[in-house]
Batch of 4 targets.
Target 1
Amino acid sequence: MSNAAIDFYLDFVSPYAYLASLRIDEMAARHDRDVAWRPIMLGAVFKVVGTEPIVNYPLKGPYAERDLARSARQLGIEIRLPEGFPHATLAAARGFYWLTDADPGKAKPFARAFFATYFQEGRNATPAEDTAKVAASVGVDEAAFLDAVQDVAIKDRLKAETSAAMDRGVFGAPFMFVDGEPFWGSDRLDQVERWIETGGW
Amino acid sequence: MSNAAIDFYLDFVSPYAYLASLRIDEMAARHDRDVAWRPIMLGAVFKVVGTEPIVNYPLKGPYAERDLARSARQLGIEIRLPEGFPHATLAAARGFYWLTDADPGKAKPFARAFFATYFQEGRNATPAEDTAKVAASVGVDEAAFLDAVQDVAIKDRLKAETSAAMDRGVFGAPFMFVDGEPFWGSDRLDQVERWIETGGW
């Protein structure tokens, strides 16, 4: 049996990615798997696919908010969309990749803290200065974080990850790969677990 | 506790509606509920919402075919998309509504037979003459069926059902309402059942 990591593609603005983030590492750990979190720029992906954020569509948008709240309550949490949702989450995505190299132990704690700020507090922490404060709350140097998210190499890293994701077929978030098999949506996590348990069907 | 019927909106061209159709009546029966099948014209709905059939989108289309096959295999079946998929399924939708009045006991058997022809045999039975033959296979008079699907009142009924569905927020298929609560997608059937069991959360 493979023990390869699960690739977990996300955008910090995706509430369904947030829901998946609350369960995926624990699920993977039950099967001795790691989870590689991979932020991407969903806006750039949507341009290629020809889609829009779900909240922009008539009928579909209002349903999505209801489905989201209901799916969150099923997990025992309340979800709050910050005023002006959706925002661009470049600083969070770039900062995450910087941390994976500079201080890997803080990457996921930062990511979880950002998700919690955005979707539990319902606070728009997407401006770089606010994102840096979220990083500081998990022990990251605020000034170094602010420098990093303006670093050309880090900016390029995020672009490259987004492009590579699309090369693999990623068109939304959350998007997971398990042993090469693609799964889209937080509502596919049970299938992901079953795929791991059975080796596929 | 309510025993109101579950409204089940579908288009006979939707493979996910087909998957839901294989489970929804049995699930509902476990909870003493009926299921009211309500065909709609998804093409007309998509125009209003600004979306397209999922197979038309780059990246999303190929994934959908894979996800569909995988979800079908999980239910123990193989699914086949007829050559030229997706087709307009007007005759099937109109014929269904005609049967609900003319010979209600044959409406769901016809619907199931049509789904099976289209997605199990993988045969495009959408031309009215072919749809009528499917109806004949469950004991419906073929000539009467062909007349009915050209009847203005029946055509108007399908338009009215589609319009009423959108008024309730329907933007895709399958789409279910349980005691007023909307659920989109065959992957929400477990939530639908839990909603019935718990009265909502």
Note: Chain B is about 55% helix and 10% strand.
Target 2
Amino acid sequence: MKIQDVARKANVGVGTVSRVLNKNGYVSDKTREKVEKAIRELQYTPNELARNLYHNKTNTIAVILPDASNPFYASLVNEIEKALRVQGYKTMLCNTVGEKTNEELYLNMLQRNMVDGILTGTHTLDNWKYAEIVGPIVSFDTPPLSETTPVVTVDHGTGGRKAAELLLESGCRHVVQFRDNVFDSFPFFERHREFEKTIREAGAICENYIMERDCFTEDFYERIVEDCFRKYPDVDGIFGTDMPAAFSLKRALMMGKRVPEDLRIVSFDGTYLINSIYPTLTCVRQPIRDIAKAGVDQLIRMIKGERPVNREIKLPVTIDIGMTTMTVR
Amino acid sequence: MKIQDVARKANVGVGTVSRVLNKNGYVSDKTREKVEKAIRELQYTPNELARNLYHNKTNTIAVILPDASNPFYASLVNEIEKALRVQGYKTMLCNTVGEKTNEELYLNMLQRNMVDGILTGTHTLDNWKYAEIVGPIVSFDTPPLSETTPVVTVDHGTGGRKAAELLLESGCRHVVQFRDNVFDSFPFFERHREFEKTIREAGAICENYIMERDCFTEDFYERIVEDCFRKYPDVDGIFGTDMPAAFSLKRALMMGKRVPEDLRIVSFDGTYLINSIYPTLTCVRQPIRDIAKAGVDQLIRMIKGERPVNREIKLPVTIDIGMTTMTVR
């Protein structure tokens, strides 16, 4: 079934059918009705590829993330898909799992008109690669990718400070934070800095356990948590994202430690993982739905040719008191 | 930058440039070199939309799932994305969250040439809607969608029987299984049937706790688990997928129950959630990576016009003995 068949049936030109389908240009009501009748009778479905080429739009957004099975990214992409769907966009899921080549390949899709925009939560490429890309990009928790690329992040500084305060108030004197080995241009670097600063200013010891980036397997978490307890057998407090926090809790209980008496734990992220665990974890929670919505809103502004609201949108974090700290608030 | 610019620069016709780009039709080596030189010098990037229209291919697969943040679906889509990427396909993520209209909308994409095929892990539509769709579709754990649609599933019957045996061997006499309210045409119906049958044949009591379908929030799991313990305060064994199993464990510990002395738990799925929890859960594990690969392989055979290997591919499950049962094997 082709557009030509519709034109023949309605006894009009192909251009007229095209104008009706694309809702642009002048078509008289009578002609429109004729065309619509022919479309109905022939059960004609327009070829979306042809429509896309005509409009030079795909209504598709690439969402680039390291690993879609990690609870944080799984929740983020889920909320992004919902927010995009409401706006009439489809979600192209792109895992990078730390491979540079994938990220470059995905960026290239924007230039080749395969997607209308990019939301990226990963950043392994040099900035100039992003600067070269002409088109709407919004990133999550990365350094500024280019002069025109907005970033959506959370108030990591406050998150780090509050986590440190929760551990200190619980009596911690020797804590570990699990952290990535990243440059200080990443927004979450602030979380690690504020955490360490707050602990040190209170006269306590802060160890930094550096994790490889973009590793998300259970084996990886088992291994680093075991290694951490071997390196620092006397720690009385732990701070990390949900996965290392949950695996630290599991390991501590396996070792016969009492939580929170012997060891206090504060996690960062607050995904559903936290709520599935007992004792419940005290956590600094990221507003995942708001992060997704803010990113989608910014991107759609850019696609429409409007200016992004801000170069950086910083959303607030909240505290959930669980059973792994001893503070009563 | 258009294909016309390349043609002018190389001093050839547009058709020649198109033949070089699409690698079909005859072009002499000398002409090909001229065209490739012009492409390089102009830094021409082909418009993928035009290419797609020409080939009538998008190299994109729609993956339709109820909720991409649920640990099982998050792991499944993650493995699907990797398996598709290796084969040169991109992943369009489509959540349905139980809305019929979404599933229909997504199916329609196949007809409108927006995707080359569909992998679906959800099924809320009547079968005739699927039967109407002309194009490659493979489903996970659904009834046969049409005469030509293959299904990838696991050996649910064995899974249910083994779970029941693990609970019986641990001394259970009164167990609950969390289950969906679905027709017996769903492959996982077999799991519930075999579980119940095995428990009853041993002279023990099996309660069926019916869950609403397509609910995945933490609040939902908290609520049903609380309700289940209220309805059946004397149960000594629980069987459910990872989320209800994990929330049952949490609730039991909060209520002061000893696990496994007072309550034994076996979960079904074996996602990373299971490994993040202490005491570790005994589980019947689905081979998520193999499920993803089998689905992708079948679909790509169909896209290439080959016949699917089988109407139903049934993969084996494995048992992981954790700390929530008392069997020593």
Note: Chain A touches chain B through 56 residues (CB under 8 Å).
Target 3
Amino acid sequence: MIKNDRFLKALARQPVDKTPVWLMRQAGRYLPEYRKIRSQAGDFLTLCKTPELACEVTLQPLERFDLDAAIIFSDILTIPDAMHLGLYFEPGEGPKFKQPTCDAASIKKLGIPDPEDDLGYVMQAIRHTKQALAGKVPLIGFAGSPWTIGCYMVEGGPSKTFATIKGMLYTDPAILHQLLQKLADSISLYLQAQIAAGADVIMLFDTWGGILTPQAYQAFSLHYMQQILQSLPAHIPTIVFTKNGGLWLEAIANIGSNAVGLDWTIDVGDARQRIGHQVALQGNLDPAIMQATPEVITQHVEQILASYGSGNGHIFNLGHGITPNIQPENVAVLVDAVHEKSQQYHQCKQHDQAQ
Amino acid sequence: MIKNDRFLKALARQPVDKTPVWLMRQAGRYLPEYRKIRSQAGDFLTLCKTPELACEVTLQPLERFDLDAAIIFSDILTIPDAMHLGLYFEPGEGPKFKQPTCDAASIKKLGIPDPEDDLGYVMQAIRHTKQALAGKVPLIGFAGSPWTIGCYMVEGGPSKTFATIKGMLYTDPAILHQLLQKLADSISLYLQAQIAAGADVIMLFDTWGGILTPQAYQAFSLHYMQQILQSLPAHIPTIVFTKNGGLWLEAIANIGSNAVGLDWTIDVGDARQRIGHQVALQGNLDPAIMQATPEVITQHVEQILASYGSGNGHIFNLGHGITPNIQPENVAVLVDAVHEKSQQYHQCKQHDQAQ
């Protein structure tokens, strides 16, 4: 059914001809055609909530680049938006909520959104996109982790110290667990619906897990991500990504995902030694390298491929989302370099197997 | 000469009766007596530049709490300020520079500040404080790392993605090395002068090293910190702290400092297993825990002490600076809990040695 199944094979740690590659935020502001649609939509949330447009921007990077996966255009804050907390985006400041969720009463009031009734625009965008893709590449559905979504809900917006949610964690953990449980239940339903609508792979983004102590990370982030993974059908491959989670890879690899996403602070070869026997690895070019020349980009691609080495189970990606200041031509350089320079590592493997 | 030498002994990994404790930013806005002096001074920089007042606020936390060290009240950006880049503080936004240092020409123009001529106010503050302390506890002098100071100079202020300095790193590394070498030379002279003025211990703060790849961290941060350490007299104990550097502890422990500072994302027992045979460890309570009740603070102190276990070489601290929203009473709880609860780990050791 899927014509280019390199990404699915790598997730299953099966042999491939070339290392598959896609980019976090590959449908985004670095593309002029994205900025055009975005300005037509008026604002970011309207773009997310208009399935035809969300489908169109999801497909844009695939028109330009030889990417091995599509990821549905959406946002990790669709769930609290569906909980009626008044999500809005202040230009240059990131997401904010008119009603932060920072006490027992406001947490008690939160409902579990019904995916088709309250978040139907996401499912519609997935259905449109699946149809338009016509099996060209797999489509990734996604959600934020309960902890990460909770950070935005409790703080009411971006934060440097996350003092409010951490205060709650250390003074009233039971209340925070109630919030995270509601989020985990909501996310499970949401991702099940994304799968029913056609998502081939699911990714959990834990942007803020890395601000926790090892014990708090286990109890307040990893635990709930594990619950979510367990609620999903076993045949759907999953990827878990905790930014700044490099110290905790063994724990992350144990919660049942097929792949673990890596940011750029860890050497992918070291990560493979630690957890490569259990999971596939996704990453991990520093997004800042995309500002450099084609030669420098290619050189860093080669370093990462060499560090991972021969064999299966690597999905190339950035260590975080691509930033708006990147030239689209450099993405072509990256994608083509991954495909071209990775062949030697897969040929070697096939040669070894033939012997 | 120093009456309470618990901190110096722990830095040398020698036996102590109790685990020594001090707090990053212990002279700071959480103290009402600090806020009073600060409002008299007018602004933060004037306070730094008035030796009598800097001395007074350095001593304030020692009046209240049974701390085992003092740290001179100053800022990591005194050096670029002495380079005439127009340092100023925008309320709620952090430090900024009127002239960012983001090209070859502006880097070439930078001079190496003379510590006594250009930064004499720091040396005077240290001399005053040493006299006032009268050997009560050791006095820590400090500087930012070249990479961290460079981040502020190149970005011109706080940044989320550090796109400008990382762009320089990947497109024009030679220029960035020129900047970092000038900073390393300046910092070496600055710290030598702090030692001559009376600083007993030196700490390097690498707040932003953790945003780099492992290779870039080695080349653009660790390398220059090692140069600085090598320029200091061998008898002066040193501490190196890279926030989010937990993945690179082995490399950090190899550059010749006596102690390595830890943020709260790593278990102190794991860190001890990895590098405790080489260096003392400083840390690592999550500063957010200081918002909690005395019982919760004490419980987390006990966890960290137990995780480090019996024996020498632990200096208790937070994993980052104390925040302005903390009740001073909670600092007393912390300091006293460290001293009280740590005795068992040192008694055991002495008992073992006696056998």
Note: Chain B has a mean pLDDT of 95.
Target 4
Amino acid sequence: MKTDTKDDMTNIREMVLSFIRPTQAEKTNLETVRKGIIDDIVKIARREGQLDIIPISVGSAERNTWLRGNHDIDVFISYPEDTSFNEFYQKSKALLTEMAKTGDSWEDRHSEHPYIHIRKEGFEVDLVPCFRVKSGAEIKSAVDRTPFHCVYIKENIRGLEEDVMLLKQFMKGTGVYGSEVRTGGFSGYLTELLTIHCGGFEQVLKQASEWKHGTLIDIAAHQTIEHDDPLVVVDPTDPKRNVAAALSLTKFSLFIDRARFFLKSPSVEYFSKKEYPPLTAEEYKRLAEKRGTKWIAVSFKTPPIAEDTLYPQLFRLEKSLKEILTRNEFTAVNTFSWSEEHKQSIVFLEVLNDLLPPLQKRVGPPVWNESNAASFCQKYKDSPDTFSFAIENERYVAEVLRKHRSAAPLIEDMLFKEAALGRHVRDSLKDGYEILQNEDIEKIESEAFWKFMNEKLAARIEP
Amino acid sequence: MKTDTKDDMTNIREMVLSFIRPTQAEKTNLETVRKGIIDDIVKIARREGQLDIIPISVGSAERNTWLRGNHDIDVFISYPEDTSFNEFYQKSKALLTEMAKTGDSWEDRHSEHPYIHIRKEGFEVDLVPCFRVKSGAEIKSAVDRTPFHCVYIKENIRGLEEDVMLLKQFMKGTGVYGSEVRTGGFSGYLTELLTIHCGGFEQVLKQASEWKHGTLIDIAAHQTIEHDDPLVVVDPTDPKRNVAAALSLTKFSLFIDRARFFLKSPSVEYFSKKEYPPLTAEEYKRLAEKRGTKWIAVSFKTPPIAEDTLYPQLFRLEKSLKEILTRNEFTAVNTFSWSEEHKQSIVFLEVLNDLLPPLQKRVGPPVWNESNAASFCQKYKDSPDTFSFAIENERYVAEVLRKHRSAAPLIEDMLFKEAALGRHVRDSLKDGYEILQNEDIEKIESEAFWKFMNEKLAARIEP
């Protein structure tokens, strides 16, 4: 049996690698484009009189851990540490403005930090100015760590590059790769650190299958701060930072599950993401009927901001609407957020019970919370709409006449009163929104949405 | 203002005491009966050759803290500490058998410990054999503490007897007096200790209005064990015992509330319990319609056991049925147990939503709980009735086809499978039970029940 599994694993590795190893042509191409960009930076910097900048190639391309078909190039442009922020902004702006012209197209991705994205000869290129600080622990701006990450990985990854590739592909196939807020999965740097720490692809899976909430990996044994995250991987270049801080509990848990099942019965299936075709109107109708639940959705124009700024606001709204429903005794079995750039953003809530009786039970504060107790008593004790007023366990409870017996009017009423609204979401909602129910949802016209819905409604962890 | 309140309080004390102070005739009568009983015990013991027993008068009658109309006499019969259990049982049985004949009627209240109850000349008399141990901390049987309680109170209560009476009456009026399981309120000994500790009736209320969960009162400053109870009053005669262990969180909290409101605006109202007339069929129908909820009740023959043995079993059943409903996404807003001796016992559940959609969401174990996770996966992952199988946060979740869309068939199905059944309740259920719903509940014929229902449905803490 053991030999079989080992053979299986070797076969699987080889088969997957034959699909994901970059081709020689791809490598040469990437090298040429990258060299061209660095030459451009140096040339333009000289022209601008910026003689003390150093271009630093970072990212998976530099570390030989990138996957076939990946066309990302990341180049950092470092300024001396003692450059003032003002000078830094002005100089980097001048440099980036000129660099933008070298691309086939470009975008300003500046948020707190100046940075541009250009497309050039089929490559997606990030150009990021930073400070040349002494260590990852003494950064002046958040991006200053990246060059240290790159050095650390390059020094430690030798011989494990293909294990990183396998791990990345395994994570893509199982839906846990990508550290953007929308995904909440594993970043590239995190997969590299895990591979180094554990000693290889299978070794990562073996350890992961034993992980629990709060698992700590401190490669450099220099942690200085406690983190309350599902997984804590202390950055070997900065003792204060958890590299897995963006990893959601769901993706962490899914990875544990997938690692465990894969090890029990290894298969190439784990390395390719299941594609869900868009749900058709008829399929949706049939599914909705079979489920028998009520869908409520708040739809509004997508604010013109980066996804990583938008999604935290969508998730906050989603969570607070769910809490509002729960407080009012509606059972939201599923909630999710979905957004399409330039089009609409929607927060969905699937409710089990959409018609509640007139009676509503309000659970108040504990009796020993005197000021809250007093205001709860004042509000409900003598109201004509109060059926009963009593104490249960340590809390006041009032049975009152329910204001909204259905979920949609409740949400409409509470949206600006009790929901948690981030700045951009609030602005967009103020410009207008719709509250959709089952039949209205059918009418949403977006292939991406119906793929997403299919994936959500038919979700099966497989194999 | 202060003077007014003080005058108010003095007036209230006097008025209430004028109603609850035992009359001279009552006192004389009680003394005569008690003396007669003790004489009988001594006489019979001599006849039986039991020369080493000592009758000990205990209870509120002995402490002068009883209320008018109270006709309880408690007499303990102590045997030397070195008496063997076997000898103790045999001797006390012989003695109690003869004593039983002196009453107008009698009952064997023996459970773990031999003890009889007799009625004599209008008095309710408990006769309890015990061991004459050295201290309350070194008892041989649970009842051996009582004589020490009595001694302690007699030594410390002088001058505060009327404060105890007022406190007892206040607790009766507000529904928190009585330490039987059904009530879960304050015992007589507890009211006496609180009065001694605080220094008087009003002082108890003042302190109580500041109580929080976990409040500790250790009069003898000798606590040796931590208790996880709402209120901990360490027995001055036994450092390991919490005198308030039987006090429920609800009654504890209600007393805090009532103390606070009374002190804000003292009134005699607090000293008399509101009477609820039985709800008529029409009133119940109208109320049920107004609430719009669904009532489900499990009704069965009351087991022929003491209430203090029955009620823990009823409460366990009530709690577990509520949990079954919650697990299956029914919202039970109210639950309660009711029982009538020789007739029926009923556990009631008031459900907000009695028709659920076909979809049911099952929340499974965390991924890192490997053995439970494996059995959850096996049960749901590939079932044809599973809509979806996924991970949310740290847990497996399955959307499955709901087996019971209504609460009554669910409870019927789960009663012997998942509900927590105490021995006597299980036996009675096996002999037969009914699951009642709204209309069936109307047909319950019991004045006591309809009084109870009225109190539950119209509950208002007043004033």
Note: Chain B touches chain A through 50 residues (CB under 8 Å).
